[in-house]
């Protein structure tokens, strides 16, 4: 039986990254941290065994959780997103610098793998300088870094146009060498697999004359002429998705109808339900959305989350890389840290405490 690797999750949201890792059967989240109490409610309902703390990551101390094999973070992307203000590290709300709070904990715990997810624009923000700082900070902490921009509809067989950058740091050279990102796969799932075009839903999801300020309904009624695709109201105009997939979900979908994907169905013009938005992220049908939470909260949770299917495919490759490197590792008898043995020498020194090890 292969080892189950332990994980600690930060900026955990509803647990999309955790779900992708756990779906492989090779990883288990034992600790999670999230600042917003709304997604914490959803996380707790779906991860009964994980200890999730609802507090600012700045208040998390290394002793708050045990050593783990993997530390992962979908750190806040608003400061880098094309859809946001793109202020990066200078974001007035401090969201751009929260990566360094995560790095503080990584340096203290020295996990075998670091996993990060963020918006595609991170790689080009500020002329590439923001990403360079992040990559070099991980390298300075002792990690070999590899990254790739991946689209959910190309790598997750999920009909959503969602490009994200995935960054991995490996503490061991052999793990790094053994890891390969998954290849693209055909998109066989259709929007009809995740959106119910046939049956009526609750009245609150429909657009009707006079429901919203201005002539939004009239504009939608005039321009939404294709019942087999997804549209989006973008502040002042209607956008049709030409790829016949769901457009990129955003965190502000629940704010006055802006950015919510829309469909024309026999019963009228309506927005996607929160459940359908989670479907568009590749979440399984049995993923629970807590009763009593406002739709605006659920839309935000879905938009802030990740494509679960892409995460799962990456996690499978991580598990394979770790399996391949079993023979070249040992636990230091002095400090109990796991280290990599030199393949050409039976004597090495622990990089953490300097203890001389001879096999």
UniProtKB/TrEMBL annotation:
One of its GO terms (biological process) is DNA restriction-modification system. The active site is at 77. Its EC number is 2.1.1.37. Signal peptide: none annotated. Keywords: Methyltransferase, Restriction system, S-adenosyl-L-methionine, Transferase. Transmembrane segments: none annotated. One of its GO terms (molecular function) is DNA (cytosine-5-)-methyltransferase activity. It comes from the Bacteria. Pfam families: DNA_methylase. It is an enzyme of class 2 (transferase). NCBIfam families: dcm (TIGR00675). Belongs to the class I-like SAM-binding methyltransferase superfamily. C5-methyltransferase family. This is DNA (cytosine-5-)-methyltransferase.
